[in-house]
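Bit of a strange request maybe. I'm writing a small parser for structure token strings and I need a real example to test against, not something I typed by hand. Could someone generate the tokens for this chain?
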Amino acid sequence: MSDILLGTCGWSYAEWEGILYPYAQNKLKQYSSIFPTAEIDSTFYALPQQGTVFGWARNTSRDFVFSAKLPQTITHKKVIDPELALMVVNQSDWSQRNQPRMGPRDDGVFSILLESE
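Reply from user aminoacidic:
Good idea to test on real output. This should exercise your parser:
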């Protein structure tokens, strides 16, 4: 039987300050000490910069699972940019160049979130 991972859409909300995490604390680091997974909503709008992805990895444990939202250019605008299409089709190659934890884990677990209109 598979494990079910419970997380939220994102991890950085002003409303959670003082409740989920103390003020001025690293929000992702604190969030990941409570939840094993989170959705990356920002990937819906743009591909993350390499430094951003490394920052996510630096602030989470090796077994933390990110679920990247598929870009809106695919799901809503129905336009596939060639570079974006190659990234999605060959996701593990893109993840290898950015950070191995954005691609399939050693146990084969990988998550992409698809939002539709």
